[in-house]
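Work through this protein:
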Amino acid sequence: MSRALTRLLDFDDQYRRDQKQGQAFLHRRDRRFAQQQQEQRQPLTVPAWLQALHALNDQRRDPGPDTRLRRWRQARWVFAGLGTVLGAAFMLGLLVYDGGRQINLTLLMALVALQCLLAVLTSMQAWLGWQPWRGLFGAQGDDDPLASLRPALSARIAHTGGLLFAISGLLALLIMVVVQDLAFGWSTTLQTSAEGYHALVSLLAQPWQTLWPEAVPSQALVSASQFYRLNSEGAVSDPALLGTWWPFVLMLWLSYVLLPRLVLLVLAGLQVRWQARRALARHPGYAPLLYRFETPWVETRGEEEAPRAPAEATVALSPLPASSTLIHWAGAGMRSGAVVGALSRGPGPRQLRAGGNSTLEQDAEALREAGQRREPVILVARGWEPPTGELSDFIMDAREQWPAGTLLALVPLADEEGAALTDRGLQAQWQRFVERQQDPHLLLCAPEAQSDNTPVDADHGR
């Protein structure tokens, strides 16, 4: 699948995560990124922004395709397989020759025209925004970022099957030419003379008449190839002459079936990329992001407002409970051996991962395994990032699944190496988060036991 599709889905995911954050935090974060890019003379683009956030949050470390595109990839493989089988079967059935009658060129040209027409109609429905088999890919929600791309994706799948149909049909034709003595002829109920039929095939042969003159049937060949249904004796003086139609049939299939499918498949891929970029530019989070990039963050107070003493908040850091069960939220500190040594009190600690790019199933498995160990659990987080609603939901799920009274020690770190969080504003932010949970068994701890009550400026955490 196209990178533009993955970029669109990544942007939509980040937009949904950012909706849980305050506008002030988002503005400061994105403005800081824009300034860093300018200082480093790096392009200020959405892919660079997403890459920076993924590296910060330890998300999408696997650069593989997005799982939400799996059904589209599977449909493309199914259509490719069906096209391969049907193309070979179609051509073999069309070229069946038992020696009693000739292979009808008129029928073959009609079927070629039908294939070309189907290819054109497939592209037209994509450009018109019509998806004839929309139910195959599930219901379309109002918030689906791929909603406008579904017709183009469907057309690309259909063209993939059509191209494989054309390739396998072409290979079957070449095999039949080699292993069997084919005899082609033409016949029609309409009052058509040999001269008129020759004009038709000459018109169809225009694309290759200079490239391969032998593939253009002559007037003599057309006249000698006409047959009638009631003529059982055959009036062809040279039966080998009927086999010389095969270059025309080969080029007819190549020019009007295979090449159109190939060209339209390439155009469908370009259409998907173009519509993905357009959908990204029209995304509700795109314009606000550019605004945050370009607009400095200014925090002002009225001149008439008298300076006030900062409100104090008390951060109560509890002693770290003895435990060998660690859950790294969004991968925080997971790659640092110092973190494990500072937090775990037993040999061979069990390190689990949740949040970030983990799926809901992986979060549930981490909760299940941590609850089975029946001991306090240490939840490690990035202290320089504000606590999110996802983390609050995770703690609530833990309380529903774990045994009653299980201690949960929340440890926000100052960096990935496991340093204790010392910034007073950030400490107050995490303290308020713990208080909002109203959970007597949820403790705010540090890598090293600190139990003193430290007054901090609450405004710094806002």
